Amino acid sequence: MFNTNITAFIAIATSLSFLFFPSPPKSSYHSLYISSSLSDNASISHHLYTLTRRPHVAGSQANAEAAAYVLSTLTSYNIRSHTVSYGVSLTYPVSRSLTLKSSPQDPPTTFDLRQEIYNGDPYAGVADEVLPTFHAYAKPGSVAGPVVYANYGRVEDYMTLKEMGVNVSGAIVLARYGQIYRGDIVENAHEAGAVGVVVYTDRKDYGGGGGDAKWFPDDKWMPPSGVQVGSVYSGAGDPTTPGWPSTGACERLSDDEVEKREDIPMIPSLPVSAADGDEIMRSIGGLVANDDWQGSIDAPVYRVGPGPGIVNLSYAGKQVISTIQNVIGIIEGEEEPDRFVILGNHRDAWTFGAVDPNSGTAALLEVAQRLGKLQKRGWKPRRTIVFCNWDAEEYGLIGSTEWVEENRELLASRVIAYLNVDCGVSGAGFHASATPQLDELLKQATQQVQDPDNSSQTIYDSWVGSSNYSMIGRLGGGGSDYAAFVQHIGVPAADMFFGGGYPVYHSMYDDYIWMKKFGDPMFHRHVAVASIWGLVALRLADEEFLPFNYLSYAYELQKSAEDLEGEVSDKGISLVPLFKSIEELKKAATKINNQRKAIEENKGWGSMWKNDPWKVRELNDRLMTAERAFTDKDGLSGRPWYKHLIYAPSKHNDYGSKSFPGIDDAIEKAKNLNTAESWRFVQHEVWRVSRAVTHASLVLNGELT
């Protein structure tokens, strides 16, 4: 009896010990995480230097070596890590040629299609490892035709050409980078009747505006021979395994089946430099282009053609099933190990990748290093933190998509949020995009981190006070690895970076020297993005209640619905179901916020033996899964992989974020057809979104109807 009493007493004393000898609160570790004692700009600089010593395109030996470096670095921080491999369809250039005959009497000009090294270039010895300039997944073939200038290659640019009486059929389109995804530049040209596309880098946008502007290595601007390469594939994941992972001896679509899916371009294309684009432009006659279509101050007058210049374009590529490797690192949660907070960045680059993507990779390793230091000081996360270093993002978000498709059900049931950093740093100024329930959390994190360019204020102060301040963006575009998480399985997500568009994007000049001179000379912006990224992750992983606010989501939907009203008000389309569902979401969001407050107020001595942990868990599950309710199993009409009915890419610009993408697609189609049936389909899409919003409200309420 005595022994039994002693045992019982020890058990009770042990269970109560946390009240008398508590471990430090999680928030103290969060403050320590962002302190200067843990951050290390020297190690970030070293990581970036190491990762960018050679070009490391997906499927290459150099990229496999970069994966090994990430794996060994995570392991050295005592983070359990492994690689996950997939065999995916990638394309590489075999041959390219581009010739211009300016007029019948002139000899043809053959372009060498080479990016030039500069005097003193420390990477000259490995410059031949840079792939020849090309578009991944470009249509092989040889085409010729008179040149038509189509500005940025947008749908509205072709409408302007039509109004000017310019016939694009049978032509080679010359378009400039800068406004829409390159794959959509090619697709829009094909739809207009063009037989091929040449996409160039205009000095007005990337070369400092021309005139006396200098270029890299003397300034940040793209050199005249610089070329932006990249993918023209409009899908996500391996084109041969749409919707399922490329594992082992898996099922694959044939080339004909891939082509029928319309994610791969139907006409050949090539990217060229500003110098080559300028020469082609000088061969074009016809009407003078509009003022906003013109070039830099020392450029020729831009005309629209067609001709008299004739371009011959030829491209041949090879398609290879290549091995890619994602690197995964895991810090297991102590109390809720089955709930995941995921941090992701891709590793593969078209060339050296100092900005895109390895500024983000260096920041990822910095976050891991700091969390490793916290672990040594006694910190353990409440929930599991997962580090993901993706491969083959540049080809079409392939590494992340294959992993999400392989782990779909597990991720859909367990992931709290996905936090993405791609081009972590390209200059000054913080930017973020997110699903709206994360807005307040992002703002709060930026209020705790010092501005790397002004130590007298926080990032939030400079963010809100800047002349180009824009509120938090949305994740409807297909521009990075958040796409599979948000748009395919409905996981709350955020994406963040310093800078924005930068002139040497996807060229061989995106190297460590450019970063050291122009992007972030002291690597303080890298430290800052790692601070915000990690702090958001810590709060999601550690806070008892998930810091989500669905009222922000409801207000964002309200604003988007009001914007929609003007487009359909005279077409007999009723948005009443949508507005009604949004009101229900507001009520559900308010209710769950109040329930959370009530549980918090009841905590303490009086409720110690109550079932509060289960109440907290149940409430958090509702907050976690409400985002899933915005998805639909059938996906968007004609784009079934995209399941999210609130956020997905614009049909004519993969980078463009659209609210209510299904409604938007239906409106565009109805405007073209202008039939009663096409407008009825718009109403159907309104109902679909309304039902999804209603489902989200039911999840937040947590009660059966």
From TrEMBL:
It is found in: Endoplasmic reticulum membrane. GO terms for cellular component: endoplasmic reticulum membrane. GO terms for molecular function: metal ion binding; metallocarboxypeptidase activity. Residues 143-229 form the PA domain. InterPro entries: PA_dom_sf, PA_domain, Peptidase_M28, Peptidase_M28B, TFR-like_dimer_dom, TFR-like_dimer_dom_sf. It comes from the Eukaryota. One of its GO terms (biological process) is proteolysis. It is a single-pass type II membrane protein. Its EC number is 3.4.17.21. It is an enzyme of class 3 (hydrolase). Residues 1-17 form the signal peptide. Residues 573-700 form the Transferrin receptor-like dimerisation domain. It catalyses: Release of an unsubstituted, C-terminal glutamyl residue, typically from Ac-Asp-Glu or folylpoly-gamma-glutamates. Its cofactor is Zn(2+). Pfam families: PA (PF02225), Peptidase_M28 (PF04389), TFR_dimer (PF04253). Residues 326-512 form the Peptidase M28 domain. Keywords: Carboxypeptidase, Glycoprotein, Hydrolase, Membrane, Metal-binding, Metalloprotease, Protease, Signal, Signal-anchor, Transmembrane, Transmembrane helix, Zinc. Belongs to the peptidase M28 family. M28B subfamily. This is glutamate carboxypeptidase II. It comes from Davidia involucrata (Dove tree). The lineage of its organism: Eukaryota, Viridiplantae, Streptophyta, Embryophyta, Tracheophyta.
